[in-house]
Amino acid sequence: MSNSQPLLDWLQSWYAQQCDGHWEHEWGVKIATLDNPGWTIEIDLEETDLEECEYPRQEVNRSTQDWVCAWTAEKTFHAACGPGNLTEALTLFRTWVTTTAS
Where are the domains positioned within the chain? Predict the structure, then answer.
């Protein structure tokens, strides 16, 4: 899975690789909106190659509309971000996956 692949195509491929007839019944990827406004992301790592890996909390606060925060907890990758930062947050996940799982 290359970093040159479009981000959503990459995420779809990562998800499909986790699906084994079992994982997708218990775990998955959740993207929702926040009311401040912004986005929240939860990506389950349980039963993946990353379940024991840690992503230390990272926060970037540029303004009330331009921010991103990402971390792992309880075998889940979490991110929250401003309304225009969804791509940035998902890119943090892709970068972490492609550098950790090598």
Answer: 28-100
Lowest mean pLDDT among 22-26, 41-45, 51-55: 22-26
Size (the chain), residues: 102
CA atoms within 13 A on the CB side of 27: 20
* pLDDT value at residue 72: 97
Is the pLDDT reported for residue 46 higher than 70?
yes
Say what the alpha-carbon torsion angle 56, 45, 14, 21 is, to the nearest 10 degrees.
Answer: 180
Cβ atoms within 10 A of the Cβ of 97, count? 22
Per-residue buried b or exposed e for 20-45, using 16+ beta carbons within 10 Å of the residue's own CB:
eeebeeebebeeeeeeeebbbbbbbb
In this structure, are residues 76 and 43 in contact, taking their beta carbons and an 8 Å threshold?
A: yes
